[in-house]
């Protein structure tokens, strides 16, 4: 059994995915500590929902993780696996006045909280990491594409981890939502996985021929050779490197591995021959939909305008006129395909270009309910009950697709000796 801590837990997507692998006779994963804290707000809605779903846990923290690390680090138990979907921020590193002070992230403080836990745990640091982020992490920031990701994985390498990553679009593997995210797995020096990777004559074979992520989410690699290079320098040097990380070069493809700061990366093409789930498969019967989710005739024109193509003149506050163009968005959404990506602004009645709208059998148009949004992320029905509908939609816009974590967890657990 792997002991797990869940950081930036939201409403528990990682936990749901990992615990889906547990049976009465085989408890593969046990959450021993979790943390969810939303800055700039007194009410911790996501944390409250988390505690409602797992009311008997006494190991959930609703405090700022940076404060916990600084003032109450002993409350974070030793664990085998650290998981979390941390926000995509600026991970640049500032040089400190005193080198003894260590690294100081300028903005990406939540990533550096993960780093601090690993470093302070020392020999007791977790053997495995499973992390999730938006796929643009691989090419951010715009002026130094790939720099942020390079800093992250180099910092993990310096702590003794081998790191692999893969961009996974849930819908391409039969799940109900088109949601592209980068998933990151890391294996500590003393693990069998690290040993197996190190023993390969060609490190990239781990990515193509049966590594943890390839087993869970197979890809085909048409290119004969992986792009191979090394991340050199101190983390501060990487942060300031404008030659290897610039606005033109994109050094990280959608799949790859890093060992001892040596990067092997290539473009993979998803391979899946199972059943595909569509929006039609998850929506509720029209009779179950509350009246406030139907679009009234007075709002329809506004919805059509926002969803439609535009080619018009607009002006800034200071009077500067410019041309504004954008293409149309499907309206209503197709029921015969997986859904578009859920966004945090999905909730509420106001017309929006990005909210989902479906047509019922009787021809009415309506928004999606919280239960349907939960289903698109493969959460149990009513998992987010306890919060208002707009906040429940916000949770799902921030969440991951549970089925991806379930499959990654299964692949990891089956490869443990």
Looking at CATH, the homologous superfamily of the largest domain is: Vaccinia Virus protein VP39
How many DSSP-defined strands? 18
- Average predicted confidence as pLDDT: 92
Number of helical runs?
13
Widest sheet: strand ordering: 3-2-1-4-7-9-8-12-13-11
Largest sheet: 10 strands, mixed
Q: How would you summarize what this structure contains?
A:
With 417 residues, the protein is α+β, with helices and mostly antiparallel strands.
Description:
- The chain has 417 residues and is an alpha+beta fold.
- The chain is 27% helix and 20% strand.
- It folds into 2 domains: 287 residues, Rossmann fold (3-Layer(aba) Sandwich); 91 residues, no CATH class.
- A 10-stranded mixed beta sheet has the order 3-2-1-4-7-9-8-12-13-11, sandwiched between helices. Strands 5-6 form a two-stranded antiparallel ribbon.
- Strand 2, helix 2 and strand 3 form a beta-alpha-beta unit.
- The radius of gyration is 22 Å and the shape is globular.
- About 3% of the residues have low confidence.
